[in-house]
Design brief:
The protein is mostly helical. It has helices at about 5-25, 30-55, 65-100, 105-115, 120-135, 145-170, 170-175, 180-200, 205-210, 220-245, 250-255, 255-270, 275-295.
Length: about 300
Amino acid sequence: MLLGDLFAVSSALFWSFSVILMRIAGYQIPPIPLTFFKNCIAIICLVSVMLVLGESFFIDLSRADYLRLTFSAVIGICFADPMIAAALNRLGASLQALADCAYSPAITCIGFLMFGERLTNWELIGGFLVVSGVFVGATMTAEIKSSKDLMVGILLAASAHIIMAFSILMVRDIYRDSSIFWVSSYRYLIAIIVMILWAYIKHPHNVKEKLFLGFYRPDTWKMMIPMSVFGSFLAATTWMAGFKYLEAGRAAIYNQLSTVFIILLAYFLLKEQFTWRKAIGVILALIGAYIVASQ
């Protein structure tokens, strides 16, 4: 497998573990303070890596590039990340995987519109099998409390992944020429600043509850810290690295494997039901990923 392929698959695996931990942490921490906590942990990890590698904390970019990175951070982290956590609370891990299917087609379409990228016929077949496997495998779960939660949860998850797809591809030229760790650190820094400003403007008398709750709940850190390391640090870094070295559509197909991993982990760790439909979905998705990897 090429380096980009390895990064993209690794991102799917790291993200899957993060989603499972996020599901557990979400029982006690609401989406916005949960997102803020993992952003802070992620930037600590990224800055530590930059210090070890001796990377510069200042990069010469144009004002337009900084504006693009800032906008990317606001929509991709401040908006999309809490939407994913909110969807997970409503749907549970397995069914959220169904809504995540919007991610791969969104990446492929945006990659075509923005960069004119095209997949080969075999890559399209492999991608179709991956997405088909996800649709077949993700079934209704007992965690859903109402039909409203089902509709809102799927809408939140699908919309969040489309927003994430656009936010990361709109700055791909920047992180292809610059350090991934620096770009990630800048985006998280912007997200943290924006979320703090939002909290003090909208909830000036309840900032602790609305934003800093995760830091005041050390009993949740055993879930929240590894969730942040796996998701906002490892998954996000390898996710960006996959797009740095691969075409958008090809990287997205590998990323979509996270749905398969989530279904399996939800069964083993969360004791969610594993049906024959889910088993067939896993097999289809793995065959599709193999076809893509073999090209």
